[in-house]
């Protein structure tokens, strides 16, 4: 039912936006809790038919590919070991499964972070996830650049514009822009980030005030 619903909605969207240059992106729900169980009960409850013996994301990716849409997935800043052990969460494994499904269906994959994170540890995980480094699996389709096509950072608030957080974020954006083929060392990135932080300080202060309650 969900796949049929997606077909109908995307067919209507394509008829409206065809020829306009608009890119249609579909966000799939990320249900990573109890992903480590045999039953995958939370995913099944939500209508995602993903089990030990059936990949529930390949049919979704193929449906999006047929309609020229982008698959948007979240939680790419998360690591498995950061989650509560009792919940058997596995966001990294889920992101990898979805990335492999998008590769199989030849559909572009975009990502975003699920929770507001301002630390370099989360930034490093985003860089790793967005490079689609699938555990050394380099058997992508010919011409596949093996990187996410887009990334949305959540969220803009006063905490982001605190001095230390803003400095880290500037360096993170620069490294994201360069992609996994960037040649600059981390020290060079930090120096350029410091310069940008300095010249953007008045605007940042103004934005932080505007965002404050």
TrEMBL record:
Gene Ontology molecular function, alphabetical: beta-amylase activity
Q: Which GO terms describe its biological process?
A: polysaccharide catabolic process
Concerning SUPFAM superfamilies, the annotation shows: (Trans)glycosidases (SSF51445)
**Which InterPro entries does UniProt cross-reference here?**
GH, Glyco_hydro_14
**UniProt keyword annotations, A-Z:** Carbohydrate metabolism, Glycosidase, Hydrolase, Polysaccharide degradation
Q: What family does the Swiss-Prot or TrEMBL record give for this protein?
A: Belongs to the glycosyl hydrolase 14 family.
| Full protein name | Beta-amylase
């Amino acid at each position: 039912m969900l796949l049929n619903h997606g077909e109908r909605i995307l067919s209507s969207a394509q008829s409206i936006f065809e020829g306009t240059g608009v890119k249609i992106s579909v966000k799939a729900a990320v249900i990573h809790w109890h992903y480590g169980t045999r039953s995958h009960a939370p995913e099944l409850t939500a209508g995602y038919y993903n089990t030990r013996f059936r990949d529930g994301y390949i049919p979704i990716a193929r449906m999006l590919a047929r309609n020229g849409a982008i698959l948007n997935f979240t939680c790419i800043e998360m690591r498995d070991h950061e989650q509560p052990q009792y919940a058997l969460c596995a966001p990294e494994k889920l992101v990898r499964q979805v990335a492999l499904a998008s590769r199989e269906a030849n559909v572009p994959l975009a990502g975003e972070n699920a929770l507001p994170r301002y630390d370099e540890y989360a930034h490093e995980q985003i860089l790793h996830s967005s490079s689609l480094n699938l555990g050394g699996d380099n058997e992508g389709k010919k011409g596949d650049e093996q990187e996410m096509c887009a990334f949305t950072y959540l969220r803009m608030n006063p905490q982001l514009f605190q001095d230390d957080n803003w400095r880290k974020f500037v360096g993170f954006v620069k490294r994201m822009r360069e992609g996994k083929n960037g040649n600059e060392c981390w020290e060079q990135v930090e120096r350029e980030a410091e310069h940008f932080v300095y010249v953007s300080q008045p605007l940042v202060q103004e934005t932080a005030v505007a965002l404050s309650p």
